[in-house]
Amino acid sequence: MPSNANPYYFAPVSRVARITPNMLRITLSGGDLTRFVSSGDADERLLVVFPADGESRPPAPQSIGGTWDYPVDGHRPEMRSFTVRHWNSETREMDIDFVVHGSGAAVRWALQARPGQVLGVTTASGWYRPPDDAAWQLLIADMTALPAVGRIVEELASGVRVHVIAEVTTADDEQCPETAADVTYTWLHGSGNGVGPSALADAAREWTCPDGPGYVWFAGEAGLSREVRRWLRHSLGWSSDRYDVMGYWRADKEAWTARYEKVRGQIEAAQTAALAAGGDFDSLRDAVDAAMEDAGL
Fold first, then answer.
1. Residues 150 and 237 occupy one common structural domain
2. Which of 21, 133, 211, 242 could form a disulfide with 238 if both were Cys (CB 3.0 to 4.6 A apart)?
3. Please, where are the H alpha helices in the chain?
4. Residues 224 and 258 in one domain
5. Three-state DSSP class for 187?
6. What is the DSSP letter of 56?
7. Entry pTM
8. pLDDT at residue 291, rounded to an integer
9. Of all helices (H) and strands (E), which one includes residue 86?
10. Does one domain contain both 274 and 180?
11. φ and ψ at 29, to 5 degrees?
């Protein structure tokens, strides 16, 4: 069974609701969630483990090296990373929002989800860390990151200035949750999200930053995250404590992985050279990003 240091929870489905044309909300309650501990991060994410087709719950993990996992040489269920859209510590209910355009394993499961089915979920963590002196914030997101943006916005205090640039499949997928903060939005429709080139990076560069120190949070497609990070670090010259940039998913993942395997040695050599040069973590990321760009990744 999983160790206490690396908890794993079986979480039953209690409700399923379509909140926009391309977003389903799955509510989990009961089961092992009676002992779930939230990270407290507004953008907290965890790993969701899905049942196999025809099954009502995923297989139990094993204790491997002191942590839970599934044997490499055995059956490994489908797993994906998702945002905890809402956690109610009193009712022990967890909402997870699923983008349901496309045809991946998570989409297929969500479209047939019903009460009584069981998911596996892991411990959660997050990255949203605005500096104390931030006079304004810019949140940049595609559909996969919209649940995190929604929770961040809902939890903001009065007086906080935030602008959201969000790329959604249709205008009906826009979400503007209630908040005490001063929040404005730029909505992009029909681009990115696996259906075409993203307009997020261009929209962010075109947005006029307010006066004073700021903070940028981005989550979306992994290749685009490199572009946004390069803009913040090199074009704007920001230090890494003023932004958090995450790749939530990768376009054409199977094809990308196949290309990566062919140049893995080249990427690892760049990483090793950067480590040997004694650079900091951001310099290491720069070196890896550059090697991936050179390799056409």
1. yes
2. 242
3. 105-112, 146-155, 200-206, 222-230, 253-276, 281-294
4. no
5. strand
6. S
7. 0.91
8. 80
9. strand 86-88
10. no
11. -155, 155
Number of DSSP helices (H) and strands (E) in the chain, helices first: 6, 14
Q: How far apart (Å, rounded) are the C-alpha atoms in residues 28 and 115?
A: 9
User: 259 CB contacts (<8 Å, ≥6 apart)?
Assistant: 295, 296, 297
Do 153 and 226 have their domain in common?
Answer: yes
**Residue 72, C-beta contacts closer than 8 angstroms, at least 6 positions apart:** none
Cα 60 from Cα 74, distance rounded (Å)? 12
The verdict on 31 and 89 lying in the same domain is yes
CA-based nearest residue to 290, from 206, 236, 234, 218: 234
CA-based max dimension of the chain = 56
For 163, other C-beta atoms within 10 Å of its C-beta total: 20
Is the model's pLDDT at 3 over the cut of 50?
A: no
pLDDT at 45: 96
Range of the domain at 19: 8-122
Interior/surface letters 254-270, b for 16+ CB within 10 angstroms, e for the rest: eeeeeeeeebeeebeeb
Number of domains in the chain: 3
Judged against a pLDDT cut of 90, whether residue 22 lies above it is answered with yes
Distance CA 109, CA 53 (A): 8
Q: Is the pLDDT of residue 5 over 70?
A: no
CATH code, 149: 3.40.50.80
